[in-house]
Amino acid sequence: MKNMNVAIVGATGAVGVEILSCLETRNFPLASLKLLASKRSAGKQVAFRGQTLTVEELTPESFAGVDLALFSAGGDISRQFAPIAAAAGCVVVDNSSAFRQDPDVPLVVPEINPEAAFDHPRNIIANPNCTTIITLMALYPLHLQFGLKTVIASSYQAVSGSGQQGIAELEGQVRAIVDGHPVESKVYPKQIAFNLIPQIDNFADNGYTKEELKMLNEGRKIMSLPELNVTCTCVRVPVYRSHSISVVAQFYKPVDLELARKAFDGKPGIALMDDPATRTWPTPLDSTNGDTCYVGRMRRDLAVDNALNLWVVGDQVRKGAALNAVQIAELLASR
Amino acid sequence: MKNMNVAIVGATGAVGVEILSCLETRNFPLASLKLLASKRSAGKQVAFRGQTLTVEELTPESFAGVDLALFSAGGDISRQFAPIAAAAGCVVVDNSSAFRQDPDVPLVVPEINPEAAFDHPRNIIANPNCTTIITLMALYPLHLQFGLKTVIASSYQAVSGSGQQGIAELEGQVRAIVDGHPVESKVYPKQIAFNLIPQIDNFADNGYTKEELKMLNEGRKIMSLPELNVTCTCVRVPVYRSHSISVVAQFYKPVDLELARKAFDGKPGIALMDDPATRTWPTPLDSTNGDTCYVGRMRRDLAVDNALNLWVVGDQVRKGAALNAVQIAELLASR
């Protein structure tokens, strides 16, 4: 394992802060670490491994001498700066959706397709959509066992998926309601406190949102299953952190519940939390601030042939974003 | 229409209060109204149509001279007192699940199977499960158009589905969190504030909860579709009122989106709130305290043949419980 010169782009955002935490706690092999953000955040000081790092303004010159850049500052910043970083010889792990469907950009979940990370002709590797990562962490072990055919999913997505501003909007609305003040909505088109928003990202022409189509397009690419059928409804819920997904997964082979449970034995990053007899199932709070995704409520589906019904939960700031990006970086550092 | 002597059993509960409100605002043809509840609530005074009514203790003698009793005090009270009321010549509309699968007890949604209300050999009519009513309000017009084959649903259920105590638990937990105090959970097995509980009611042997099986068993009975396939995952969400359901509905006939939209034209109690171009879709707050259920996000399903994807919202204390019961009473009063 070689020590790497790393930069974080968007270091002060919700995911950037978590990337920093993952690098620190996982003891990532660093030669140097550069924190990059907008001009507004430049000059901020951040503690890291007993040192104080100063956030620098992101410029086209930022990537000289940088081996690896972890981008998490939105699609516009990625589209502008990731090619500049890549041209400077830096490998980019990009958390935005900007490059995910580019055939020359691998889309990687290290537990599923680690080899893909090493084939990056554009020097860019894409980090998948949060809801897709968490759902696939549960589905991939079952796919290996039974052969995945169709995914029917409904999501329950936390406000941290919208970054710090989503968290602030829910906090502010809850406080206004408790204090009897009027509620203001800025981040979401309607009130999110004690309410649900059945639209995440913009609409495509077919009536699905782009968030919903990510599960289809990214799921096919990550698992190399071009024929996979996926339908999804994505809903924002008044939860601060951790996404949940209710999934009906149909397989080519007949399913067996005991085999399905065994499929998770020894698999990293995913665990069963599933025992109806003791009312055991995972909630968003159970996975919050943790690295593990959880599967509960697994049962044979009553309506769909060869199908399992399951409830999946994972911290989308960690495994759904920062942790997965750092795991990709670890793969690269390992060779 | 004849004036009826009516009793409300469980008059001080969340649904009982709403039944009273429906009787008042809908100008139900009353000869007399008796409010019945546990000994604890007896003596309470309630305003109704400019009069003051006093809550009486429920006893086996309560039903003398009563034509119609609306029960909403839980399954145990219904099992004990509904047969007593029925034997006294009173017709019972029961909001509990106690009699819903009894072949001699009709299960009625007035917009779907009104005729069934008049065939009640046990003098008991069952009011269906809240999530089932709201989902079927959306599915039945589509069934008439295309022939319903399979329902795949994930619910987002409000705490008022657990009565006043569910509302109090969410309020108390939110206030504790805002004030920085520890959170106590009494009604739900884990924290519901800013969290999700993927279990409603107890588990059956097949890994589904009883709440989830109601959608199957009650859906078949109400629509007279004994072959209907239904799978469902029911989840409690931190919303005060109005249930939401994400549904994939598969039909026997090919679906057409324009025909599907027209299926709701002129249908009472259900309306489209659905326009991606203007980001229009219903949220729980949109249906709260209203009589109408709403359908949004309707689109051709990408993964399932002949299927539509939709998002349904309705106030489960009103159409999901009190309003539906009062509508059944209105049917009976109309003959």
From TrEMBL, chains A, B:
InterPro entries, alphabetized: Asp_semialdehyde_DH, Asp_semialdehyde_DH_beta, NAD(P)-bd_dom_sf, Semialdehyde_DH_NAD-bd, Semialdhyde_DH_dimer_dom
Reaction catalysis annotation: L-aspartate 4-semialdehyde + phosphate + NADP(+) = 4-phospho-L-aspartate + NADPH + H(+)
Gene3D superfamilies: Dihydrodipicolinate Reductase, domain 2, NAD(P)-binding Rossmann-like Domain
Pathway stated in the Swiss-Prot or TrEMBL entry: Amino-acid biosynthesis; L-threonine biosynthesis; L-threonine from L-aspartate: step 2/5; Amino-acid biosynthesis; L-lysine biosynthesis via DAP pathway; (S)-tetrahydrodipicolinate from L-aspartate: step 2/4; Amino-acid biosynthesis; L-methionine biosynthesis via de novo pathway; L-homoserine from L-aspartate: step 2/3
Gene name tied to this protein: asd
Active-site positions on this chain: C130, H243
Residues involved in phosphate binding: R100
Residues bound to NADP(+): T12, G13, A14, V15, R40, S41, S160, G161, P182, Q316
Subunit structure: Homodimer.
EC number: 1.2.1.11
Record protein name field: Aspartate-semialdehyde dehydrogenase
GO terms for biological process, alphabetical: 'de novo' L-methionine biosynthetic process; diaminopimelate biosynthetic process; isoleucine biosynthetic process; lysine biosynthetic process via diaminopimelate; threonine biosynthetic process
SMART domains, A to Z: Semialdhyde_dh
GO molecular function: aspartate-semialdehyde dehydrogenase activity; NAD binding; NADP binding; protein dimerization activity
Record's keyword terms, sorted: Amino-acid biosynthesis, Diaminopimelate biosynthesis, Lysine biosynthesis, Methionine biosynthesis, NADP, Oxidoreductase, Threonine biosynthesis
Superkingdom, natural source: Bacteria
Semialdehyde dehydrogenase NAD-binding domain residues: 5-120
Entry's family note: Belongs to the aspartate-semialdehyde dehydrogenase family.
